[in-house]
Design a protein that fits this description.
Elements lengths: L6 H15 L12 E6 L10 H19 L3 E3 L3 E2 L4 H10 L3 H18 L10 E2 L3 H16 L3 E11 L4 E3 L4 E2 L2 E2 L7 E10 L5 H7 L8 H11 L1 E15 L2 E8 L10 E4 L4 H8 L2 H12 L4 H6 L4 E10 L2 E11 L10 E4 L5 H10 L7 E2 L19 E2 L10 H15 L2 E7 L4 E2 L1 E2 L9 E4 L3 E4 L21 H4 L5 E3 L6 E4 L3 E2 L1 H4 L3 H6 L9 H7 L4 E5 L5 H15 L12 E4 L2 E3 L2 E3 L4 E2 L4 E4 L2 E4 L5 E4 L3 E2 L10 H8 L1 H9 L8 E2 L2 H19 L9 H19 L3 H17 L4 H14 L4 H10 L23 E8 L2 E9 L4 H10 L1 H7 L6 E5 L3 E5 L1
Parallel strand pairs: 1-2, 1-26, 3-4, 12-14, 26-27, 28-35, 36-39
Antiparallel strand pairs: 5-6, 5-9, 7-8, 9-19, 10-11, 10-13, 10-18, 12-15, 13-14, 16-17, 20-25, 21-22, 21-24, 23-24, 28-34, 29-30, 29-33, 31-32, 32-33, 36-37, 38-39
Helix pairs in contact: 1-24, 2-19, 3-4, 8-9, 18-19, 19-20, 20-22, 21-22, 21-23, 22-23, 23-24
The protein binds one RNA strand of 87 nucleotides through helix 7, strand 11, helix 10, strand 15 and helix 11.
Length: 839
RNA sequence: GCGGACGUGGCGGAACUGGUAGACGCUGCAGACUUAAAAUCUGUUUCCCGUAAGGGAGUGCGGGUUCGAUUCCCGCCGUCCGCACCA
């Protein structure tokens, strides 16, 4: 009688065994091919959620599989441990951010360990510890010396009550999310990293990332936003504050003869100059600046302008004057903050021209319509031929662009340029719980880097969160230091670094973590780039772009011979669960509702409940499932199995009770196969074939990260084994099955491995080898179709000749009946596949 | 608005390069074992007609290419995601 697999006992036992043996510690000096498998490290919020479980399970399967296929695997784990929630907790619960964070890390580490991940815990790191952020400070100073760090005034969202800077997403309807105070735009001196220096390289580098999802590459491409165009100067009819020219940027220099106005942004210096002398202009500028910046605001915002009364001269015809407007739809921080409007070929300009009754001249002919007078309100921005444009007439858009740029450059009033949407990376945060920026401000010497032998600049522990504002700034002593250069009293920088800096190089520190340097070059290069990086698509742009930038910066400084940090990237889907909403709009957890006939009602009170959509698990929608009790009940392997089953990993995985129970049943079924295995005699060719096809198929699917398909293939094999009679083949299949499930259900596999008296650990075992001779069937099923419709199937030896297949097909009873004596018009035979009779 | 992805049974999904649509799992239904339940096992589960043999329809909708289309092409519809007045 087969026993039951008892995960409670087995999980802990094997986890301890792996731990004691340091099974998953990566050897930097190993001679084997190296494989670096990494999942995005978590923020230590306090609890692991199902999304983490799914993410880390995927990486774990790959890591374990790589070990079994002869690789030395680096699969580390750490904590993205700086950031706002710790400060919020400090304010709300009166607990020090460090204490809160470290307690969370301890709790989450325990949770992760219960899932039996093949992690090298000896390399664990937390970004909030001085041994990590001190090395980050060293790197920051290297960047500073290399001229990749600079300081400039920049506008931030300032909460006047909390006295802190808010991220854009913390500003809701113009108010601070916590204080509710109206957020001000304030100029602060901030530190920036010169990511724009690498714009071209970050863009072209995408081309080599053939193991990244196209979607992510496209998002990065759009974010970087390269556009070629012409930057040129209009001559102003009269000088304004000494300026005689107005510089504009356009990507459509070809439409220059369709221009009917010029517009500048509300915060353009020209607008400010006009506002000096006009109360009306001043009002208009103020109105533009107060406008909301949310997506909805922008979409609904009407195109508004203010006629300055100024004009500029058309570059190709000085007496042709264009009016200059201040317009609310022109952005100061793109291009030059000034544009020329071509209503016929740009919708925004069209809207504006129709409102202010400006000319709309056609300069690109769409088809045969070449009238200068443009009717309608829909601008034409498609392809066409230039018309009404003098020397450009008849040219294509591309040729005309080149011609105008050439003339501008010849005549010296403009030049072809490239503009980027990408901005430099502002890294200053006016907060406590982050990496202190290792700079000292001296009256005499300016900003001076902290000498490296004085690193780390450690956060003070004795801080209070009673009063709003940056605790570092109001700490009584911390910021007062002497200038390292001249020795005079000076002031420490009290801003800390954006936490995206912490995650921009942690994967390097995992590969190599000496005490006295950020990393050892040779060790880091031995592992990098990360072979497979797995995480959520929400990091598709910022984190991944910053990490690519940081790696390039190290490369440029000669510190690392790697430019792309992540060779392979995979973005996994979310774990979702159904939602339920009561009549008053409040959310109910799935455990609080039940089905009454066709309708859903609350268990408590029986109120009717509306089933909502299946959505990402979130506390606010009350549809989360805590992994801990699930692991208690079903064990790590069943949870892991469910995370891998059914849904393709890039898609969302709907959590369900039935699903986890199905996984649990299968784990038990596997155990019954193993435990109840009987030696047998003789071979079972069909089973041998199924086994070897599964060995090859599962390996392929895992390499492909198609875990759902690998799971399905293992199910098929298990079904086949169960149906098979005892034989030597069956015995062998069960023994090999143990290794096939080892990456997914490692505890069960170890148990089975031990049961069969194998040496060592299955975690160290070799992946079974598939016999190529057994991968192909010797008998195939041939479809016989009439006019493409299946009418019969034939079982024939593989490789049967066309003529044989044809005559076999025609001899079939069913086919003869269908044809009813009619002569086939044509017969198509695809060997080993089908015969299609055209009647 | 721009860009992208997706659309297959009651559900999650599978299907190689254009070649038997629905693998595998979940759910449901019927049955076996059991005093009973749990657990387990067997059968069945795309829809329609038919007792059956069998036939017909079918991969969002409409067309096209082809001996043959879930797969390729054109046009719609829907859902989701990203960006968003970027000149």
């Amino acid at each position: 009688m087969a026993s039951r697999f008892n995960p409670k006992a087995a999980d802990a036992r094997w986890q301890k065994t792996w731990d004691d043996a340091q099974t998953f510690a990566a050897d930097n000096a190993a001679a084997k091919p190296k494989s670096y498998v990494l999942e995005m490290f978590p923020y230590p919020s306090g609890r692991i959620h199902m999304g983490h479980v799914r993410n880390y399970t995927m990486g774990d399967v790959l890591a374990r599989f790589k070990r079994m296929t002869g690789h030395e695997v680096l699969h580390p784990m750490g904590w993205d441990a700086f950031g706002m929630p710790a400060e919020n907790a400090a304010m709300e619960k009166k607990v020090h951010p460090g204490e809160w964070t470290r307690a969370n890390i301890a709790a989450m580490r325990d949770q992760l360990k219960r899932l039996g991940f093949a992690l090298d815990w000896s390399r664990e790191l937390a970004t909030c510890e001085p041994d990590y952020y001190g090395q980050e400070q060293a790197l920051f100073l290297d960047l500073f010396e290399a001229g990749l760090v600079y300081r400039k005034e920049s506008a931030v969202n300032w909460d006047p009550v909390d006295m802190t800077v808010l991220a854009n997403e913390q500003v809701i309807d113009g108010k601070g999310w916590r204080s509710g105070a109206t957020v001000e735009r304030r100029k602060l001196s901030q530190w920036f990293l010169k990511i724009t220096d690498f714009a071209e390289d970050l863009l072209s580098g995408l081309g080599e990332l053939d193991q990244w999802p196209d979607k992510v590459k496209l998002m990065q491409e759009n974010w970087i936003g390269k556009s070629r165009g012409l930057r040129f100067r209009f001559k102003l009819s009269q000088p304004v504050t000494g300026q005689t020219n107005l510089q504009v940027f356009t990507t459509r220099p070809d439409t220059i003869f369709g221009a009917s106005f010029v517009a500048v942004a509300a915060d353009h210096p020209l607008a400010a100059a006009v506002a000096e002398n006009s109360a009306e202009a001043q009002r208009f500028v103020a109105q533009c600046q107060s406008g909301g910046t949310s997506a909805a605001d922008i979409e609904s915002a009407e195109k508004l302008g203010f006629d300055t009364g100024l004009t500029v001269a058309h570059p190709f015809q000085p007496e042709w004057e264009l009016p200059v407007y201040i317009a609310n739809f022109v952005l100061m921080d793109y291009g030059t903050g000034a544009i020329f409007g071509v209503p016929a070929h740009d919708q925004r300009d069209m809207d504006f021209a129709r409102k202010y009754d400006l000319p709309v001249r056609r300069v690109v002919a769409d088809g045969d319509d070449s009238e200068a007078e443009f009717a309608g309100d829909e601008a034409w921005s498609g392809e066409g031929t230039l018309v009404n444009s003098r020397f450009l007439d008849g040219m294509t858009i591309e040729a005309a662009k080149a011609a105008v740029i050439e003339r501008a450059e010849e005549e010296g009033w403009g030049e072809g340029t490239t503009e980027w949407r990408l901005r430099d990376w502002g890294v200053s945060r006016q907060r406590y719980w982050g990496t202190p920026i290792p700079i000292i401000h001296c009256e005499e010497c300016g900003p001076v880097g902290v000498p490296k032998d004085q690193l780390p600049v450690v956060l003070p522990e004795d801080i209070d969160f009673e009063t709003p504002g940056n605790p570092l700034d109001r700490h009584p002593t911390w910021k007062h230091v002497d200038c390292p250069q001249c020795g005079e009293p000076a002031r420490r920088e009290t801003d800390t670094l954006d936490t995206f800096v912490d995650s921009s190089w942690y994967f390097i520190r995992f590969a190599s973590q000496p005490d006295d340097a950020p990393f050892d070059r040779a060790e880091a290069e031995a592992w990098l780039p990360v072979g497979q990086y797995i995480g959520g698509v929400e990091h598709a742009i910022l984190h991944l772009l910053y990490a690519r930038f940081w790696t390039r910066a190290l490369n440029r400084m000669g510190m690392l011979d790697v430019k792309e940090p992540f060779a392979g990237l995979f973005t996994q889907g979310m774990v979702t669960h159904e939602t339920y909403q009561a009549g008053d709009g409040s959310w109910l957890s799935p455990g609080e509702v039940t089905k009454d006939g066709e309708d859903w009602v609350a268990i408590e009170g029986g109120e009717p409940v509306t089933p909502g959509r299946v959505e990402k698990m979130s506390k606010s929608k009350k549809n989360t499932v805590d992994p801990d009790p699930i692991i208690d009940q079903y064990g790590a392997d069943a949870v892991r199995w469910f995370m891998l089953s059914d849904s393709p990993p890039e898609r969302d995985l709907p959590w369900s009770e039935a699903g986890i129970e199905g996984a649990w049943r299968f784990v038990q079924r596997l155990w019954r196969l193993i435990d109840g295995n009987q030696p047998g005699e003789g071979e079972d060719k069909a089973l041998d074939r199924k086994l070897h096809q599964t060995i090859a198929g599962v390996a392929e699917d895992i390499e492909d990260l198609s875990f759902n398909k690998a799971v399905a293939k293992i199910h098929e094999l298990a079904n086949a084994i169960e149906k098979a009679d005892a034989s030597a083949s069956r015995d062998a299949a069960v023994r090999i099955l143990v290794r096939l499930v080892a990456p997914m259900a490692p505890h069960l596999a170890e148990e089975g491995w031990a049961q069969f008296g194998e040496q060592g650990l299955v975690a160290d075992a070799q992946w079974p080898e598939a016999d190529p001779a057994l991968l192909v069937e010797d008998e195939v099923t041939i479809a016989v179709q009439i006019n493409g419709k299946l009418r019969d199937t034939l079982s024939v030896a593989k490789g049967a000749g066309k003529a044989d297949l044809e005559s076999l097909a025609l001899a079939s009873d069913k086919i003869m009946r269908q044809l009813d004596g009619a002569e086939p018009k044509k017969i198509i035979v695809v060997p080993d596949r089908l015969v299609n009779i055209v009647a």
